[in-house]
Amino acid sequence: MDFDGLSVDQAPPIWAPLTFFLTAPLFAILAGFLILFSDAATLTSRYSMQTIAITHAVTIGFLSFVMFGALMQMLPVLAGVKITKVTIISKISYILLATGTLCMIFGLWFNIATLLLSASALLGVGFLTIIISMLIALRNVINFTASIRAMITALIFALFITFMGVHLLASYGVGNFSASHLLLANIHSVWAIFGFAGVLIIGVAFHILPMFYVAPKFKRFCKQKVAWLISTGLLLWLLLNLFFDSYAVVAKIWIATFFWAFATTVYIKLNARRRKVSDITIWYWRSAAIFMTLGTFSWVIDDFFNEKYIVLVSIFIGGGFIFSIMSGMLYKIVPFLIWFHLNAKGYMSIPTMNEMINKKLAKAQFMLFIVSLIGFIFSFFVPYLLPLFALSFITSMLILEYNIVIAALIYLKTIKTKPDFDMSMFAMKVEN
């Protein structure tokens, strides 16, 4: 691996990001059970309460927990900046987000106004706490790389979707919906998928693919312009939706083109990587590229069907692209975190990153995940198949949780032993 450009002396305590990573699959498992016990016909509507609950169990519970956990680790390592009081910030935001997500899920599922209003407040404060802390830390960046610029852009989008989400959730709590409720919900979802998650993934890929997979570096145009062009497309899409709705598909094509180009570039670069050894994360990145290609085309085409198939678009992009990459990166980031922190404490006789994850179980987990995604697509047309694929999704997420828990247990077991080297003389005071 190529660790060029990493700043390792400001990394946060291991449990700050690791707690988020360990919790994320639990929300995915919960989402799987909600799918299992839901009405398949109801889930074909993106605006049903059940659909919204399941969607946010995945997007907030799994995806945002992985993304913010990763950002917590990457900002000090890639940007060389510290999040002030990172231990306190991580604990507060974790408690608020975990509690708020549960309140939201069950508040929507059982239509309990008190839970929905509580969720609106908890999630709003939780997201603002971690987002603003990260943006403040990024003010001190000296070298603004393409990855850092993309992270800042993604966090700004996250700020806007947080305010929109709080308003939308509070509307459900009080039972009072404005005339622009559906439009705001659409903006919230599109900016969350493409502006926050999409731009963040692109920015991280600029560094992760060359570092972990020794893949060719991205071209200068891609690194300097793509995040900016996507952001421009999202703003154009917003303006067209507000004032010239019939032309909004033009902005859709603009956004979809750059994400399709990114997906194609990722696939090509992985094939051209110098380290040809394949692992489960390569499978995830490749499948993500394929699903994003299908998703971008279906998102544009769906405009001509009055968004009849928007749920399928969500499965392609949200599940096939974003969820795939987040799952794959857990298999890279968690072992790296454990190896990195143990190595920094003076432990040399430790398992390698590849040895911390059971490869056979990881492959089984990947297969079950892909089967469940494809199954969810078929279930849109044949609803009675849904419970079968919900079970395969639950099983997949249980295996994912097991794999990263085992890696965390390696850390706990190792630190109970004596280090190979005494690193205390090199210890630096770190603000937690």
Can you describe what's shown?
With 432 residues, the protein is mostly helical. The protein has one domain: Up-down Bundle (Cytochrome C Oxidase, Chain A), CATH 1.20.210.10. The chain has twelve helices and no strands. Helix 5 packs antiparallel against helix 6 and helix 11 packs antiparallel against helix 12. The longest helix is centred in the C-terminal third of the chain and has 35 residues.
The name of the CATH superfamily reads: Cytochrome c oxidase-like, subunit I domain
| Elements, N to C (H/E) | HHHHHHHHHHHH
Radius of gyration: 21 Å
Number of strands: 0
Task: Look up the CATH topology.
Answer: Cytochrome C Oxidase, Chain A
Amount of beta strand: under 5%
Q: Compute the separation of the termini in Å.
A: 29 Å
* Proportion in helices: over 70%
Shape: globular
Quick structural summary:
The protein is mainly α and 432 residues long. The protein has helices spanning 15-36, 49-79, 86-110, 113-138, 146-174, 181-213, 220-243, 248-271, 280-301, 310-344, 359-381, 386-414.
List keywords for this structure.
Cytochrome C Oxidase, Chain A; single chain; 12 helices; mainly alpha; disordered C terminus; 432 residues; 0% strand; globular
What's the layout of helices and strands?
Layout: H1 15-36, H2 49-79, H3 86-110, H4 113-138, H5 146-174, H6 181-213, H7 220-243, H8 248-271, H9 280-301, H10 310-344, H11 359-381, H12 386-414
